Amino acid sequence: MPVQTIPLVNPTPGSQGEYHYNFYFDNESEDGRPQFLGRPGLKLWKQSSTSARVRNVKEFNGSLFSVVGNKVYKYSTDGVETAVTGTLNTSDGYVWLLANNTYLGVCDGTNAYYIKFDNDTTLVQLGASNNFTITPTSMTILNQQWICTIAGDDGFIVSNTNDITEWGTYSTISAEREPDNLVAILADNAELIAAGVTGTEMFYKATTDPPFTRIDGVFLKKGCSAAASLHGIDNTAFWLSDNKQVVMVSGYTPQIISTRKMDTEIFDYKVVSDATAYSLNWKGHFWYVLTFPTEGKTWVFDVYTQLWHRLSSTDAESVYRGCCYAFFNGKHLVGDISNGKIYEMDADTYTDDGETIIGQVDYPTIEAQRMRLAHHRLEAEIEAGVGLATGQGSNPLYMMSYSDNDGKTYSNERFGSLGKIGDFEALLRWRQLGKARNRKYRLRISDPVKRIIYATFLTLDAGKS
């Protein structure tokens, strides 16, 4: 009977089809083989004094600053917390944090504030005395100048050079093709990306007044539906467009990177305006992490593999707890979406602060021109012998199920062992799998152990059509 290798990802470009939970694809492991890797777990780094959403985190002046609810906290490298004097006028939603060597700029989508290097335990709100009388909807920094978009306006306001306390240089943006209010602005590759409701333009630093000049002939017919989704990675910008598609811009050409199946799901989300994004480099994988707080979904685009996967906590359908990110003191830190905790991402941790991580891999459909295939044996090559000494995970199991109706329903789960500690020869194998014209296999795991899947093989033959 023939043995078929089930591809780990869909081999047809642009048709990924399935999106794995808490697994990511690496097309070259240490020994050269492709593999699915379980994502890093979360171990507690610090519990903030306020139990609320961590709205953002940022390194500044050798310390980590965290906005939790309407409060700001400063943390030393060993996690000692100092409450910053002053509060924000809002207590939920994304907060922009942009710093140079002198000031940390803060914008909550309604007001703007700053913390100064030589007085870094005091938060000061910008106002009329700073010539700052607008309602800022986003913030960025370029060439030592902070820039804020203005609510209900097509312009942005610019601070003095290296001085966030003085504002007033106003640059009016008139869309070249149609009037358009700005949603968000981002400094990327020494240029400004000004994303409006229905279109996007770009600016460069000028030596005249106004200090930024539109790049002639550049107009991207891609608006922005969520201000905090606009984020840059490695000279490339990403955001959620006005059509609820994720776009990527490198140079001046937009590219839709969300797949059709993903677009269909996001199109049905009721609220997308509160979507937030951050980026990180995890072992050479540049990730654009996009969270929809109201919908409770987290998507990740891997720039290295050009593939999407999902992150979740507790169960496969829940939102990922890490809603913001900072690299601080050699640690990858994320802030919790609800409880004020800051976690360290850790490859050797297999829970989220003690909570179960459900890993799920959904394979591409197996079919052969609608012929009825007999599925005799399914085998998965894994990292075996990773069981724990005691407790849950001492005999770790994968759970296998399959669907013969394009994922509408799945069979009962059948178990296979990863092997107890030291049992490096263990194989995942399931037999007598029946017949189907088309089938999708799924593997799930909840035990807190190391998770690597190298290859999957299916023994089958053709029956009657």
Topology:
Elements (H helix, E strand, L loop, with lengths): L2 E4 L16 E4 L8 E4 L2 E7 L6 E7 L2 E6 L2 E5 L5 E3 L12 E4 L3 E5 L4 E5 L2 E7 L10 E7 L2 E6 L4 E6 L2 E10 L9 E7 L2 E6 L3 E6 L6 E9 L10 E3 L2 E5 L5 E5 L2 E4 L3 H8 L8 E7 L2 E8 L4 E6 L4 E4 L11 E7 L2 E6 L4 E6 L4 E2 L2 E2 L2 E4 L3 E2 L5 E10 L14 E7 L10 E4 L10 E4 L3 E2 L1 E8 L6 E11 L3
Antiparallel strand pairs: 1-42, 2-3, 3-42, 4-31, 5-6, 6-7, 7-8, 9-10, 10-11, 11-12, 13-14, 14-15, 15-16, 17-18, 18-19, 19-20, 21-22, 22-23, 23-24, 25-26, 26-27, 27-28, 29-30, 30-31, 32-33, 34-41, 35-41, 36-39, 36-40, 36-42, 37-38, 37-41
- The structural class is mainly beta
The percent range for strand residues is: over 45%
CATH topology name of the largest domain, in short, is Methylamine Dehydrogenase, Chain H
The main β sheet shows up as: 7 strands, antiparallel
- The quaternary state of the protein chains shown equals single chain
Can you give me a brief rundown of this structure?
This protein is mainly β and 465 residues long.
